[in-house]
Amino acid sequence: MARSLQLLGLGNALVDIEFTVRDEELRATGLRKGGMTLVDSAAQQTLLHTLLLNHRGRLSSGGSAANTIVAFAQFGGTGGYMSALGQDEHGDFFAGEFAQLGIALFAERITNEPTGTCVVLVTEDGERTMQTCLAASDCFNRAMLDRRAIEHAEWLYVEGYKLTSPHGAEAAREAIYLARKEGVRVALSFSDAFVVTSCREHIKFLLHEVDMVFCNDREACAYFDTDNPNDAFAELCGQIPNVVFTLGPHGSMVRVEGVQARIPAYPTTVVDTNGAGDMYAGAFLYGLLHGWGVERSGHAASSAAAQIVAQYGARYHGDHRRLIGNGLDVQRIGESVVGNDSPPNPARSSPREFSSDL
After folding, report:
1. H or E element: which one contains 187?
2. Residue 242: its pLDDT value, please?
3. Sheet of 128-133: strands edge to edge?
4. What is the DSSP letter of 331?
5. CATH no. for residue 219?
6. 53 located within any domain
């Protein structure tokens, strides 16, 4: 059967509201630096009220898997996304951006819940700290899965954040079951150290059901309760055949389709780490699904991640072909990086300013 979607994402649809703050402002919030904290709507409104006294935020549609699908589509892939949105302005904003980008959106609109939001606090060192209110996205359950979308996908990409709620975990497991039944390959992102420590049993079960894992060193070390990233990588490779393991400024290690490679980090100036792992996954899967091979896909992903951390926001605002087509370490990967046959999506995704009157 011909597959009309190369990559289908399942995740929490969120609108990101990003602020640049000082370290002392971050400490005053009580949030764990570099982590993600789940809160209810009241707690999020309290934080937003405090921030908006002295800052204006940047607004963009977000969510981990959504960022990956957007990157994949803007490189030139055909993507889709499943989640839930509120019947509100933020939901319209999210859906409108996906329509502009040409991404098939399979999203329930929930009438009695607002669209999920994520307050992203970026400190001077570029580290991002997140406070998330899932809201409508937390209403997504297994009955809302679009089975035809899954049947028509080559790959299903599931973000680990879905495992943090009972409805989300049940939907993720059902989606993976349906994907395997239809011969769809499955990738799972660990998403956050908080996820792997709080949802360990879910991840333990899913590792036997998925084809590929994306994670960073902190997440893998948290899962295996070790301080040694090399040990965590080896443990993970012993449990799943395809592993993409990022190391921040130290590059990444991949073991995919029987090929193991160490990919260097590309030079950059870190402004905002928000979305780096999501961009890496989108670029890597784009390369892999378009016949680039493991090593070239890894270099493209590393180059793309280096560019995304050099700007504010989890979405790249420039030409995606240039993002992964120029400046790669061609001699080290031994192949040309020009002439890919899928044009990038010309639509742009830029953050909007957010203030208390929106």
Report:
1. strand 185-189
2. 98
3. 36-38, 128-133, 116-122, 14-20, 57-62, 352-354
4. H
5. 3.40.1190.20
6. no
On whether the CB atoms of residues 97 and 41 are closer than 8 A, the answer is no
The DSSP annotation for 34-88 comes to TSEEE--HHHHHHHHHHHHTT--EEEEEE-HHHHHHHHHHHHT--EEEEEEEESS
DSSP annotation string for 241-260: SEEEEE-GGG-EEEEETTEE
Q: Which amino acid is at 270?
A: V
Q: Which long-range contacts (CB under 8 A, 24 or more apart) does 219-222 make?
A: 219/190, 219/191, 219/192, 219/193, 219/195, 220/190, 220/196, 220/245, 222/193, 222/196, 222/197
Q: Over the stretch 279-294, which tens digit does the pLDDT of each residue have?
A: 999 999 999 999 999 9
Please give the residue range of the domain that contains residue 249.
5-13+63-113+135-337
Pair 40, 336: CB distance under 8 Å:
no
Considering the domain boundaries, does residue 353 fall inside one? no
Q: Is residue 233 part of a domain?
A: yes
Read off φ and ψ for residue 188, nearest 5 degrees: -120, 130
Asked whether residue 276 is assigned to any structural domain, the reply reads yes
Q: Which residues of the chain have pLDDT under 50?
A: 326-327, 329-350, 354-358
Q: List, for residues 139-198, the tens digit of each pLDDT value.
A: 999 999 999 999 999 999 999 999 999 999 999 999 999 999 999 999 999 999 999 999
Q: Taking the model in full, what pTM does it have?
A: 0.86
Strand order in the sheet with 185-189: 104-110, 79-86, 5-10, 153-159, 185-189, 212-216, 242-246, 252-256, 259-263
Contact 229, 197 (CB under 8 A): no
Domain count, the chain: 1
pLDDT at site 353: 52
